[in-house]
Amino acid sequence: MEKKYNDELEQCYTPLLAIEEAARCLLCNDAPCSQSCPAGTDPGKFIRSLRFRNLKGAIETIRTNNILGSSCSRICPTEKYCQLACSRTAIDKPIEIGKLQQFLTDYEKKINFKALKPVPLTKEKIAIIGSGPSGLTAGAQLAKEGYKVTIFEKKDKFGGWLQYGIPPFRLGEDIIDYEIDLIKDLGVTFINNCEFNKDITVDSLEKEGFKAILIATGFDYGKSIPLFSGKDSIISAVDFLTLAKTSKEQFKIDNNILVIGGGDVAMDAATTAKLLGAQKVKVVARENMDNFPASEKELSLAKELKISIYDGFTPLEYTNNKITFINEEKDTLVLSPDKIILALGQKSSLPENILNLKKDNIFFSGDLVPGDKTVVYSIKTGKEIAQKIISYLGGDR
Known about the structure:
With 397 residues, this protein is an alpha/beta fold. It is 37% helix and 16% strand. The chain is built from 16 helices and 15 strands. The longest helix has 18 residues. The mean pLDDT is 94.
């Protein structure tokens, strides 16, 4: 079957296959898969429920612990977390935890099951700046405890990197919108086209009665290096992926694409370029293949699409539309692409005075705090910061 940019590539389990896969679970006490999930989704518990045909109970476990369970099931590098820890690995292969979670959350949507019930919002007003995975998670956690949460987003659509960065063949827009609707159902207010430090400020929010402010704007700006400054044929992976998603059918792709970087964002950019019609797509990364940062799923897809990957090379020179790379053995690689996509990491576009704010009622989460820069870790920090805000405001009352 031909792979297309707008079609989800990961096929969901049928009910029979899901039950069969869950039956492989060893039902471990103190399940290592649950201990290894950064988001605390508790796969050991939801797989146990699924195994004994309690599908609604399994869904309740997922949604209670992870409001973004549908998104997470599709994009989390499970081979680095829960599936790596799965006890079944010592026998044959780990349980396909991500696929089981996807099956359950898809089933939830299909039968219109509401696992979470809203509570009266009688506590303080809380402002969240940024509607990415960390802000969304924190908003849901706080609303479940009765706080009046408003999420402010500078762009038109909500979801942050989920909406504007992750390609639709990995995460469909309908999934993102569905999970945002779940958060709205908890009583969270969403305001778009509202930029922090421009349309709203810390002072203005405090005057409106917000008792705590969470800044969760993420790393929204692609990094570069001086070698590529001022070059017309350069685009950051952040901008490229956003342009591809928002341009729809009008997007025009060059024939010969080079992606520099070895992480998941680099793989997303490369596969996006290929699925949009680029004839030649090459990836050059400084990391060696035995220490490659991209997830297995992303790397496998790139290879399946016949994307060339050169590992262990660092950019050395870029002149006359030719770029030269060098490796540790001093071997060189010379390429002449039409367009270069830089996936060298990301940073925040917020000014330093905002990032260094020291006020008791100001909190940070997601990419703005130490930890892995992944969606699952953003969910983790969103849950953690929600608890800190609750403690700051006086805890359970």
